[in-house]
Each structure stands twice: as structure tokens, then as C-alpha cells.
Design a protein that fits this description.
mainly alpha; 77% helix; single chain; 106 residues
Length: 106
């Protein structure tokens, strides 16, 4: 898996995409540099800005928001993700996010 530095260089060269942003988020999650949570959230939000149908990013973003104790943000993220997954007929992603939302709502 590519590391944060190599993916950041790609971003700096103008190769921005939802896939690159999701890859950067995964790299931050794996490497966990100091204060990685803010960068993780930033890249996941940009991933969804570039491609709102990137359903895997919704769950990862909600988990990062929960880690930051931003439960209301996580609920909004999951609600939006469920709507996108439903529109795309991505039943597995929809079900996963619905279960996660139910769990954090109690």
C-alpha cells in the first residue's frame, strides 16, 4: 500500500480524485501520524465532495467522526450515505450504514 508521502506527492501534482483521497485516508488510518484524525476527516470529506457516490467513504468518515466525539456529524454522514447507497441500489452498504446509525443512535 502506498504511504502518505507518495500519495501526497500525487495530490500535489494535480492528480486529485475520490480514489486518491480515499487512499490518503486509508494511509493516515494505517500509519497514524501525530494528529492524523483531522487529515483523515479532511480527505474523506473531499473524497465525498469529488464523488458523493463513494459509499465506502461514508462509513469510514462516520467512524472518524465518532472517534472525535462528533456523534451528530456521524449521524448526518450516515444518513447521507444511506440515501446515496439506496439510490445506487448498494444494499450491502445501505444495510451496514443503517446498522451503524442505529447503534450510535441509542
Amino acid at each position: 500500500m502506498a504511504n502518505i508521502n507518495s500519495l501526497t506527492r500525487m495530490l500535489e501534482r494535480g492528480q486529485d480524485s475520490a480514489l486518491l483521497r480515499f487512499g490518503l485516508a486509508c494511509a493516515y488510518l494505517k500509519e497514524k501520524p501525530q494528529d492524523y484524525q483531522a487529515s483523515l476527516i479532511q480527505h474523506l470529506e473531499q473524497c465525498l465532495h469529488l464523488d458523493p457516490n463513494y459509499t465506502a467513504a461514508y462509513t469510514m468518515l462516520a467512524k472518524a467522526q465518532i472517534d472525535q466525539e462528533a456523534v451528530s456529524d456521524a449521524k448526518r454522514t450516515l444518513t447521507a450515505g444511506i440515501a446515496r447507497a439506496s439510490a445506487q441500489k448498494d444494499l450491502q452498504a445501505e444495510k451496514t450504514m443503517a446498522v451503524f446509525l442505529k447503534r450510535i443512535s441509542h
